[in-house]
Design goal:
By secondary structure, the chain is of the alpha+beta class. It folds into four domains: about 110 residues, Schlafen, AAA domain (Methyltransferase, Cobalt-precorrin-4 Transmethylase, Domain 2), CATH 3.30.950; about 60 residues, no CATH class; about 160 residues, Heat Shock Protein 90, CATH 3.30.565.60; about 100 residues, Winged helix-like DNA-binding domain superfamily/Winged helix DNA-binding domain (Arc Repressor Mutant, subunit A). Helix content is about 35%, strand content about 20%. Strands 12-11-13-14-16-15 form a six-stranded mixed sheet, covered by helices on one side. The chain has a four-stranded mixed sheet with strand order 1-2-5-4. A hairpin with a 2-residue loop joins β15 and β16. α9 runs antiparallel to α10 and α10 runs antiparallel to α13. The longest helix is centred in the last third of the chain and has 24 residues. The chain is elongated.
Amino acid sequence: MLDKPEGKTLEYKQDLSSPRNLLKTLVAFANTAGGRLVVGVRDDRALIGVENPLDEEERLANLIADSIAPRLVPDIEFMTVEDKTLLLVEVHLSGQRPHFLKAEGPEAGVYVRLGSTNRQADRELIAELRRSVVGVAFDEMAMPQLSVDDLDLDAAQALFGESRPLDEKALLTLKLAVHEQGRLVPTKGGVLLFGKERDRHFSDAWVQCGRFVGRDKADIFDHMELHDHLPQTLDSIVLFLKKHAMRGADFSDLRRKDVWSIPLGILREVLINALVHADYSQRGAPIRVAFFDDRIEVENPGILLPGMTIEDMKQGVSRIRNHVIARIFRELNLIEQWGSGIRRIFKEAEALGLPELQILEIGMRVRVIVPLAEQLSVQHPKKAVTPEVTPEVTPEVTPEVKRLLLALDGEMPRKAIQEGLKLRDEKHFRVAYLQRALKMGLVEMTIPDKPNSRLQKYRLTEKGHATLATTRKSEGSSDQDHMYKR
Protein backbone atom coordinates (compact mmCIF):
# COMPACT_ATOMS: atom_id res chain seq x y z
CA MET A 1 0.00 0.00 0.00
CA LEU A 2 2.81 2.43 0.83
CA ASP A 3 4.18 2.04 -2.70
CA LYS A 4 1.02 3.64 -4.10
CA PRO A 5 0.53 7.40 -4.58
CA GLU A 6 -2.33 9.27 -2.97
CA GLY A 7 -5.64 8.88 -4.78
CA LYS A 8 -9.36 8.58 -4.40
CA THR A 9 -9.13 5.95 -1.66
CA LEU A 10 -5.71 6.67 -0.13
CA GLU A 11 -4.11 9.63 1.66
CA TYR A 12 -1.01 10.16 3.82
CA LYS A 13 -0.63 12.52 6.79
CA GLN A 14 2.58 13.29 8.57
CA ASP A 15 0.88 13.91 11.93
CA LEU A 16 -2.32 15.20 13.54
CA SER A 17 -1.25 18.85 13.56
CA SER A 18 -3.90 19.83 10.98
CA PRO A 19 -6.98 17.98 12.20
CA ARG A 20 -9.47 19.84 9.97
CA ASN A 21 -7.89 18.62 6.74
CA LEU A 22 -7.69 15.10 8.15
CA LEU A 23 -11.35 15.17 9.15
CA LYS A 24 -12.36 16.48 5.70
CA THR A 25 -10.62 13.48 4.18
CA LEU A 26 -12.47 11.03 6.42
CA VAL A 27 -15.81 12.69 5.61
CA ALA A 28 -14.99 12.56 1.89
CA PHE A 29 -14.04 8.87 2.11
CA ALA A 30 -17.31 8.03 3.89
CA ASN A 31 -19.38 9.94 1.31
CA THR A 32 -17.63 8.71 -1.84
CA ALA A 33 -16.03 5.26 -1.99
CA GLY A 34 -14.35 4.59 1.33
CA GLY A 35 -10.61 4.82 1.79
CA ARG A 36 -7.52 4.57 3.99
CA LEU A 37 -5.67 7.37 5.71
CA VAL A 38 -2.15 6.63 7.00
CA VAL A 39 -0.72 8.88 9.71
CA GLY A 40 3.07 8.99 10.03
CA VAL A 41 3.92 9.25 6.33
CA ARG A 42 4.96 12.39 4.44
CA ASP A 43 3.44 13.29 1.06
CA ASP A 44 6.60 11.96 -0.64
CA ARG A 45 5.90 8.65 1.15
CA ALA A 46 8.89 8.93 3.49
CA LEU A 47 8.16 7.14 6.78
CA ILE A 48 8.16 9.46 9.82
CA GLY A 49 6.24 7.38 12.30
CA VAL A 50 3.98 8.46 15.15
CA GLU A 51 5.31 9.31 18.59
CA ASN A 52 3.15 8.18 21.50
CA PRO A 53 0.83 6.13 19.24
CA LEU A 54 -1.61 5.20 22.03
CA ASP A 55 -2.17 8.86 22.93
CA GLU A 56 -2.51 9.83 19.27
CA GLU A 57 -5.02 7.04 18.65
CA GLU A 58 -7.20 8.28 21.53
CA ARG A 59 -6.91 11.88 20.35
CA LEU A 60 -7.90 10.89 16.81
CA ALA A 61 -10.89 8.85 18.00
CA ASN A 62 -12.13 11.80 20.08
CA LEU A 63 -11.68 14.22 17.17
CA ILE A 64 -13.76 12.02 14.89
CA ALA A 65 -16.52 11.54 17.49
CA ASP A 66 -16.71 15.25 18.32
CA SER A 67 -16.39 16.70 14.80
CA ILE A 68 -18.31 14.51 12.33
CA ALA A 69 -22.03 13.88 11.97
CA PRO A 70 -23.79 11.55 11.58
CA ARG A 71 -21.52 9.55 13.83
CA LEU A 72 -18.63 7.93 11.97
CA VAL A 73 -16.81 4.91 13.46
CA PRO A 74 -13.77 4.04 11.33
CA ASP A 75 -11.31 1.21 11.98
CA ILE A 76 -8.09 2.52 13.58
CA GLU A 77 -5.08 0.19 13.70
CA PHE A 78 -1.36 0.31 14.44
CA MET A 79 1.14 -0.78 11.79
CA THR A 80 4.88 -1.21 12.19
CA VAL A 81 6.94 -0.63 9.04
CA GLU A 82 10.73 -0.34 9.10
CA ASP A 83 10.59 0.10 12.89
CA LYS A 84 8.19 3.02 12.50
CA THR A 85 4.73 2.93 14.08
CA LEU A 86 1.96 4.21 11.82
CA LEU A 87 -1.74 4.80 12.39
CA LEU A 88 -4.04 3.32 9.73
CA VAL A 89 -7.55 4.76 9.63
CA GLU A 90 -9.90 2.84 7.35
CA VAL A 91 -13.31 4.26 6.39
CA HIS A 92 -15.96 2.36 4.47
CA LEU A 93 -18.63 3.85 2.23
CA SER A 94 -21.28 4.90 4.72
CA GLY A 95 -24.94 4.01 4.60
CA GLN A 96 -25.67 7.19 6.57
CA ARG A 97 -24.22 9.61 4.02
CA PRO A 98 -23.92 12.48 3.61
CA HIS A 99 -21.56 12.97 6.56
CA PHE A 100 -20.42 16.51 7.35
CA LEU A 101 -18.17 18.52 9.66
CA LYS A 102 -20.26 19.74 12.58
CA ALA A 103 -18.42 23.07 12.70
CA GLU A 104 -19.44 23.84 9.10
CA GLY A 105 -22.97 22.45 9.18
CA PRO A 106 -24.94 20.00 6.99
CA GLU A 107 -25.00 22.33 3.95
CA ALA A 108 -21.40 23.61 3.86
CA GLY A 109 -19.59 20.80 5.66
CA VAL A 110 -20.17 17.94 3.19
CA TYR A 111 -17.11 16.81 1.21
CA VAL A 112 -16.48 14.23 -1.49
CA ARG A 113 -13.31 12.73 -2.86
CA LEU A 114 -12.05 13.66 -6.33
CA GLY A 115 -8.73 12.05 -7.16
CA SER A 116 -6.40 12.90 -4.29
CA THR A 117 -8.32 16.01 -3.23
CA ASN A 118 -11.41 16.77 -1.16
CA ARG A 119 -14.14 18.92 -2.72
CA GLN A 120 -17.03 20.66 -1.03
CA ALA A 121 -20.35 19.25 -2.23
CA ASP A 122 -23.01 21.63 -3.52
CA ARG A 123 -26.75 21.33 -2.89
CA GLU A 124 -27.39 19.14 -5.94
CA LEU A 125 -24.61 16.70 -5.04
CA ILE A 126 -25.81 16.48 -1.43
CA ALA A 127 -29.26 15.54 -2.74
CA GLU A 128 -27.64 12.92 -5.00
CA LEU A 129 -25.82 11.42 -2.00
CA ARG A 130 -29.11 11.15 -0.12
CA ARG A 131 -30.90 9.57 -3.08
CA SER A 132 -28.13 7.00 -3.49
CA VAL A 133 -28.70 5.77 0.08
CA VAL A 134 -32.40 5.05 -0.44
CA GLY A 135 -31.96 3.81 -4.02
CA VAL A 136 -33.99 6.53 -5.75
CA ALA A 137 -32.79 7.53 -9.22
CA PHE A 138 -33.09 11.20 -10.17
CA ASP A 139 -34.69 10.41 -13.51
CA GLU A 140 -37.41 8.25 -11.90
CA MET A 141 -38.79 11.21 -9.94
CA ALA A 142 -42.14 12.66 -11.00
CA MET A 143 -42.67 16.14 -12.44
CA PRO A 144 -46.23 16.80 -11.13
CA GLN A 145 -46.34 20.31 -12.59
CA LEU A 146 -46.37 18.80 -16.10
CA SER A 147 -48.59 16.41 -18.05
CA VAL A 148 -47.83 13.72 -20.64
CA ASP A 149 -48.72 16.33 -23.28
CA ASP A 150 -45.32 17.84 -22.47
CA LEU A 151 -43.66 14.72 -23.93
CA ASP A 152 -42.99 14.48 -27.66
CA LEU A 153 -44.61 11.07 -27.96
CA ASP A 154 -44.62 11.23 -31.77
CA ALA A 155 -40.83 11.44 -31.80
CA ALA A 156 -40.60 8.66 -29.21
CA GLN A 157 -42.97 6.44 -31.17
CA ALA A 158 -40.95 6.99 -34.34
CA LEU A 159 -37.89 5.61 -32.56
CA PHE A 160 -39.69 2.58 -31.13
CA GLY A 161 -41.59 1.77 -34.30
CA GLU A 162 -45.08 0.40 -34.71
CA SER A 163 -44.22 -2.88 -32.97
CA ARG A 164 -44.08 -1.10 -29.57
CA PRO A 165 -47.04 1.28 -29.20
CA LEU A 166 -46.44 3.84 -26.47
CA ASP A 167 -49.81 3.66 -24.74
CA GLU A 168 -50.34 4.46 -21.06
CA LYS A 169 -49.26 0.99 -19.98
CA ALA A 170 -46.01 1.25 -21.94
CA LEU A 171 -45.28 4.72 -20.56
CA LEU A 172 -45.69 3.39 -17.02
CA THR A 173 -43.61 0.27 -17.71
CA LEU A 174 -40.78 2.32 -19.22
CA LYS A 175 -41.18 4.86 -16.39
CA LEU A 176 -41.50 7.70 -18.85
CA ALA A 177 -44.56 8.58 -16.79
CA VAL A 178 -45.98 7.75 -13.35
CA HIS A 179 -49.24 8.23 -11.52
CA GLU A 180 -49.12 11.19 -9.16
CA GLN A 181 -52.21 12.20 -7.15
CA GLY A 182 -54.51 10.50 -9.64
CA ARG A 183 -52.86 12.05 -12.70
CA LEU A 184 -50.48 10.62 -15.28
CA VAL A 185 -47.42 12.87 -15.22
CA PRO A 186 -43.99 12.56 -16.85
CA THR A 187 -40.90 11.57 -14.94
CA LYS A 188 -37.73 13.60 -15.10
CA GLY A 189 -36.30 10.85 -17.28
CA GLY A 190 -39.25 11.14 -19.64
CA VAL A 191 -38.69 14.90 -20.00
CA LEU A 192 -34.93 14.47 -20.37
CA LEU A 193 -35.46 11.92 -23.14
CA PHE A 194 -38.46 13.33 -25.01
CA GLY A 195 -39.52 16.59 -23.38
CA LYS A 196 -40.92 19.18 -25.77
CA GLU A 197 -39.30 21.93 -23.68
CA ARG A 198 -36.46 20.02 -22.06
CA ASP A 199 -34.12 23.02 -22.05
CA ARG A 200 -36.59 25.03 -19.96
CA HIS A 201 -36.69 22.39 -17.22
CA PHE A 202 -33.08 21.17 -17.49
CA SER A 203 -31.05 24.07 -18.80
CA ASP A 204 -27.79 22.12 -19.06
CA ALA A 205 -29.16 18.91 -20.61
CA TRP A 206 -27.68 19.48 -24.05
CA VAL A 207 -24.43 18.68 -25.83
CA GLN A 208 -21.67 21.03 -26.93
CA CYS A 209 -19.35 19.80 -29.68
CA GLY A 210 -16.15 21.53 -30.78
CA ARG A 211 -13.32 20.88 -33.23
CA PHE A 212 -10.21 22.70 -32.04
CA VAL A 213 -7.01 23.66 -33.85
CA GLY A 214 -4.02 21.86 -32.37
CA ARG A 215 -3.95 20.23 -28.95
CA ASP A 216 -5.61 22.87 -26.77
CA LYS A 217 -8.69 25.09 -26.79
CA ALA A 218 -6.97 28.30 -27.87
CA ASP A 219 -8.51 28.28 -31.37
CA ILE A 220 -11.81 26.68 -32.35
CA PHE A 221 -12.31 25.51 -35.93
CA ASP A 222 -15.97 24.42 -35.77
CA HIS A 223 -18.63 24.03 -33.10
CA MET A 224 -22.19 22.83 -32.72
CA GLU A 225 -24.86 22.88 -30.00
CA LEU A 226 -27.20 19.88 -29.92
CA HIS A 227 -30.63 20.05 -28.34
CA ASP A 228 -32.09 16.90 -29.94
CA HIS A 229 -33.95 14.25 -27.96
CA LEU A 230 -31.27 12.26 -26.13
CA PRO A 231 -31.43 9.06 -28.25
CA GLN A 232 -31.14 11.16 -31.42
CA THR A 233 -28.31 13.20 -29.96
CA LEU A 234 -26.01 10.19 -30.23
CA ASP A 235 -26.29 10.11 -34.03
CA SER A 236 -25.89 13.88 -34.24
CA ILE A 237 -22.61 13.77 -32.28
CA VAL A 238 -21.31 10.92 -34.44
CA LEU A 239 -22.14 12.94 -37.58
CA PHE A 240 -20.18 15.89 -36.18
CA LEU A 241 -17.17 13.66 -35.48
CA LYS A 242 -17.40 12.06 -38.93
CA LYS A 243 -17.48 15.48 -40.51
CA HIS A 244 -13.99 16.13 -39.16
CA ALA A 245 -12.62 12.60 -39.48
CA MET A 246 -12.93 11.90 -43.21
CA ARG A 247 -9.82 10.58 -44.91
CA GLY A 248 -9.39 12.91 -47.86
CA ALA A 249 -12.52 14.12 -49.63
CA ASP A 250 -13.90 10.87 -51.01
CA PHE A 251 -17.56 10.78 -49.96
CA SER A 252 -18.56 8.06 -52.41
CA ASP A 253 -18.87 5.25 -49.88
CA LEU A 254 -19.56 6.35 -46.31
CA ARG A 255 -19.98 2.74 -45.20
CA ARG A 256 -16.32 1.85 -45.73
CA LYS A 257 -14.53 1.47 -42.40
CA ASP A 258 -11.25 2.82 -43.79
CA VAL A 259 -12.91 6.15 -44.61
CA TRP A 260 -12.76 7.26 -40.97
CA SER A 261 -9.55 8.21 -39.18
CA ILE A 262 -11.01 7.92 -35.66
CA PRO A 263 -12.12 4.84 -33.68
CA LEU A 264 -15.87 5.27 -34.13
CA GLY A 265 -16.79 2.07 -32.26
CA ILE A 266 -14.93 3.20 -29.15
CA LEU A 267 -16.25 6.75 -29.38
CA ARG A 268 -19.85 5.59 -29.77
CA GLU A 269 -19.57 3.57 -26.54
CA VAL A 270 -17.98 6.50 -24.71
CA LEU A 271 -20.75 8.84 -25.90
CA ILE A 272 -23.48 6.42 -24.80
CA ASN A 273 -21.82 6.17 -21.40
CA ALA A 274 -21.78 9.97 -21.07
CA LEU A 275 -25.43 10.38 -22.10
CA VAL A 276 -26.68 7.58 -19.82
CA HIS A 277 -24.55 8.33 -16.74
CA ALA A 278 -24.50 12.14 -16.71
CA ASP A 279 -25.81 13.76 -13.53
CA TYR A 280 -28.58 15.89 -15.01
CA SER A 281 -29.37 17.35 -11.60
CA GLN A 282 -26.11 19.32 -11.78
CA ARG A 283 -26.11 22.89 -13.07
CA GLY A 284 -23.32 24.77 -14.77
CA ALA A 285 -22.24 23.02 -17.98
CA PRO A 286 -23.55 20.57 -20.58
CA ILE A 287 -22.02 17.36 -21.89
CA ARG A 288 -18.97 18.35 -23.94
CA VAL A 289 -17.27 16.64 -26.87
CA ALA A 290 -13.90 18.19 -27.78
CA PHE A 291 -12.04 17.05 -30.92
CA PHE A 292 -8.32 17.91 -30.90
CA ASP A 293 -5.59 17.01 -33.39
CA ASP A 294 -4.36 14.11 -31.23
CA ARG A 295 -7.39 13.06 -29.14
CA ILE A 296 -11.11 13.33 -28.52
CA GLU A 297 -12.42 14.16 -25.04
CA VAL A 298 -15.94 13.39 -23.86
CA GLU A 299 -16.97 15.02 -20.59
CA ASN A 300 -20.22 14.73 -18.65
CA PRO A 301 -21.42 16.42 -15.44
CA GLY A 302 -21.39 14.42 -12.23
CA ILE A 303 -18.76 12.43 -10.38
CA LEU A 304 -18.88 8.64 -10.15
CA LEU A 305 -21.66 7.17 -8.05
CA PRO A 306 -20.83 6.53 -4.38
CA GLY A 307 -18.87 3.32 -4.04
CA MET A 308 -17.51 3.45 -7.59
CA THR A 309 -13.91 4.08 -8.59
CA ILE A 310 -12.22 4.38 -11.97
CA GLU A 311 -10.53 1.02 -11.38
CA ASP A 312 -13.96 -0.53 -10.79
CA MET A 313 -15.10 0.83 -14.17
CA LYS A 314 -12.08 -0.65 -15.93
CA GLN A 315 -12.88 -4.03 -14.37
CA GLY A 316 -16.42 -3.92 -15.76
CA VAL A 317 -18.26 -2.96 -12.56
CA SER A 318 -21.34 -0.99 -13.54
CA ARG A 319 -23.84 1.02 -11.54
CA ILE A 320 -26.58 2.93 -13.30
CA ARG A 321 -27.28 6.52 -12.32
CA ASN A 322 -30.23 7.16 -14.64
CA HIS A 323 -32.46 4.08 -14.66
CA VAL A 324 -35.09 5.47 -17.06
CA ILE A 325 -32.59 6.76 -19.62
CA ALA A 326 -30.60 3.51 -19.47
CA ARG A 327 -33.78 1.45 -19.95
CA ILE A 328 -34.79 3.43 -23.04
CA PHE A 329 -31.32 3.20 -24.55
CA ARG A 330 -31.41 -0.55 -23.94
CA GLU A 331 -34.88 -0.89 -25.51
CA LEU A 332 -33.62 1.00 -28.57
CA ASN A 333 -30.61 -1.37 -28.82
CA LEU A 334 -28.16 1.46 -28.17
CA ILE A 335 -26.78 -0.49 -25.19
CA GLU A 336 -25.81 -4.11 -25.84
CA GLN A 337 -24.89 -5.58 -22.44
CA TRP A 338 -24.95 -3.97 -19.02
CA GLY A 339 -21.47 -3.19 -17.72
CA SER A 340 -19.57 -4.50 -20.75
CA GLY A 341 -18.98 -1.19 -22.52
CA ILE A 342 -15.96 0.21 -20.68
CA ARG A 343 -14.07 -3.09 -20.63
CA ARG A 344 -14.81 -3.56 -24.32
CA ILE A 345 -13.47 -0.16 -25.36
CA PHE A 346 -10.20 -0.74 -23.48
CA LYS A 347 -9.77 -4.08 -25.25
CA GLU A 348 -10.65 -2.55 -28.61
CA ALA A 349 -8.18 0.29 -28.08
CA GLU A 350 -5.47 -2.24 -27.29
CA ALA A 351 -6.34 -4.26 -30.42
CA LEU A 352 -6.11 -1.08 -32.53
CA GLY A 353 -2.71 -0.24 -31.04
CA LEU A 354 -3.96 3.01 -29.50
CA PRO A 355 -2.40 4.52 -26.36
CA GLU A 356 -4.43 3.64 -23.29
CA LEU A 357 -7.67 5.53 -22.79
CA GLN A 358 -7.87 7.79 -19.74
CA ILE A 359 -10.81 8.24 -17.37
CA LEU A 360 -10.55 11.22 -15.02
CA GLU A 361 -12.70 12.93 -12.41
CA ILE A 362 -12.14 16.66 -12.85
CA GLY A 363 -14.13 19.42 -11.19
CA MET A 364 -17.28 17.42 -10.44
CA ARG A 365 -17.20 15.94 -13.95
CA VAL A 366 -16.05 12.70 -15.56
CA ARG A 367 -13.81 12.99 -18.62
CA VAL A 368 -12.86 10.16 -20.98
CA ILE A 369 -9.88 10.84 -23.26
CA VAL A 370 -9.66 8.77 -26.46
CA PRO A 371 -6.23 9.15 -28.12
CA LEU A 372 -6.01 8.99 -31.91
CA ALA A 373 -3.70 6.65 -33.82
CA GLU A 374 -2.53 9.49 -36.05
CA GLN A 375 -2.58 13.25 -35.72
CA LEU A 376 -5.36 15.00 -37.64
CA SER A 377 -4.45 18.60 -38.30
CA VAL A 378 -6.81 21.35 -39.41
CA GLN A 379 -6.03 24.82 -40.63
CA HIS A 380 -6.46 27.92 -38.52
CA PRO A 381 -10.12 29.03 -38.61
CA LYS A 382 -9.23 32.14 -40.62
CA LYS A 383 -7.57 30.01 -43.29
CA ALA A 384 -9.81 26.97 -43.17
CA VAL A 385 -11.59 25.93 -46.33
CA THR A 386 -14.57 23.56 -46.16
CA PRO A 387 -14.27 20.79 -48.80
CA GLU A 388 -17.00 20.68 -51.40
CA VAL A 389 -19.44 17.80 -50.98
CA THR A 390 -21.34 16.50 -54.01
CA PRO A 391 -25.02 16.82 -53.05
CA GLU A 392 -26.05 13.69 -54.96
CA VAL A 393 -24.04 11.44 -52.65
CA THR A 394 -25.01 13.08 -49.34
CA PRO A 395 -27.18 10.40 -47.71
CA GLU A 396 -28.66 12.62 -45.02
CA VAL A 397 -30.75 14.80 -47.41
CA THR A 398 -34.10 13.63 -46.09
CA PRO A 399 -37.51 14.58 -47.55
CA GLU A 400 -37.94 17.01 -44.66
CA VAL A 401 -34.69 18.80 -45.50
CA LYS A 402 -35.66 18.94 -49.19
CA ARG A 403 -38.97 20.57 -48.23
CA LEU A 404 -37.10 23.11 -46.13
CA LEU A 405 -34.78 23.99 -49.00
CA LEU A 406 -37.73 24.43 -51.34
CA ALA A 407 -39.52 26.66 -48.81
CA LEU A 408 -36.60 29.02 -48.14
CA ASP A 409 -36.90 32.24 -50.13
CA GLY A 410 -33.98 34.53 -49.43
CA GLU A 411 -33.53 35.30 -45.74
CA MET A 412 -36.43 34.15 -43.56
CA PRO A 413 -37.10 33.92 -39.79
CA ARG A 414 -37.83 30.54 -38.27
CA LYS A 415 -41.52 31.19 -37.73
CA ALA A 416 -42.08 32.16 -41.37
CA ILE A 417 -40.38 29.00 -42.64
CA GLN A 418 -42.40 26.81 -40.27
CA GLU A 419 -45.67 28.47 -41.29
CA GLY A 420 -44.77 28.08 -44.97
CA LEU A 421 -44.35 24.35 -44.38
CA LYS A 422 -47.66 24.26 -42.46
CA LEU A 423 -46.00 22.65 -39.43
CA ARG A 424 -47.52 23.22 -35.98
CA ASP A 425 -44.95 21.46 -33.76
CA GLU A 426 -41.99 23.82 -33.31
CA LYS A 427 -39.82 21.12 -31.68
CA HIS A 428 -40.39 18.70 -34.56
CA PHE A 429 -39.60 21.44 -37.08
CA ARG A 430 -36.36 22.36 -35.33
CA VAL A 431 -35.13 18.76 -34.97
CA ALA A 432 -36.25 17.15 -38.23
CA TYR A 433 -35.94 20.14 -40.53
CA LEU A 434 -33.91 23.11 -39.36
CA GLN A 435 -31.19 21.56 -37.20
CA ARG A 436 -30.49 18.79 -39.71
CA ALA A 437 -30.13 21.31 -42.55
CA LEU A 438 -27.81 23.44 -40.40
CA LYS A 439 -25.66 20.43 -39.48
CA MET A 440 -25.29 19.50 -43.14
CA GLY A 441 -24.18 22.98 -44.08
CA LEU A 442 -27.15 23.50 -46.42
CA VAL A 443 -28.59 26.38 -44.40
CA GLU A 444 -26.84 29.04 -42.34
CA MET A 445 -27.78 31.68 -39.79
CA THR A 446 -27.62 35.36 -40.67
CA ILE A 447 -26.39 36.08 -37.10
CA PRO A 448 -24.25 33.00 -36.27
CA ASP A 449 -22.65 34.60 -33.19
CA LYS A 450 -26.09 35.00 -31.57
CA PRO A 451 -28.05 31.83 -32.43
CA ASN A 452 -30.95 32.76 -30.11
CA SER A 453 -31.32 36.34 -31.32
CA ARG A 454 -34.92 37.46 -32.01
CA LEU A 455 -33.62 38.95 -35.26
CA GLN A 456 -32.19 35.61 -36.40
CA LYS A 457 -32.94 34.56 -39.97
CA TYR A 458 -31.89 31.64 -42.15
CA ARG A 459 -30.70 31.38 -45.75
CA LEU A 460 -29.30 28.81 -48.15
CA THR A 461 -25.54 28.30 -48.36
CA GLU A 462 -23.76 27.68 -51.67
CA LYS A 463 -23.97 23.99 -50.89
CA GLY A 464 -27.68 24.43 -50.16
CA HIS A 465 -28.27 26.14 -53.52
CA ALA A 466 -26.46 23.28 -55.27
CA THR A 467 -28.52 20.68 -53.42
CA LEU A 468 -31.73 22.59 -54.17
CA ALA A 469 -30.86 22.67 -57.87
CA THR A 470 -30.28 18.91 -57.82
CA THR A 471 -33.57 18.37 -55.97
CA ARG A 472 -35.55 20.43 -58.48
CA LYS A 473 -33.86 18.69 -61.38
CA SER A 474 -34.58 15.20 -60.06
CA GLU A 475 -38.13 15.80 -58.83
CA GLY A 476 -39.45 18.48 -61.21
CA SER A 477 -41.61 21.47 -60.45
CA SER A 478 -44.79 19.39 -60.13
CA ASP A 479 -43.27 17.50 -57.22
CA GLN A 480 -42.71 20.79 -55.43
CA ASP A 481 -46.46 21.47 -55.30
CA HIS A 482 -47.04 17.90 -54.15
CA MET A 483 -44.54 18.24 -51.31
CA TYR A 484 -46.21 21.42 -50.07
CA LYS A 485 -49.58 19.66 -50.02
CA ARG A 486 -48.09 16.85 -47.92
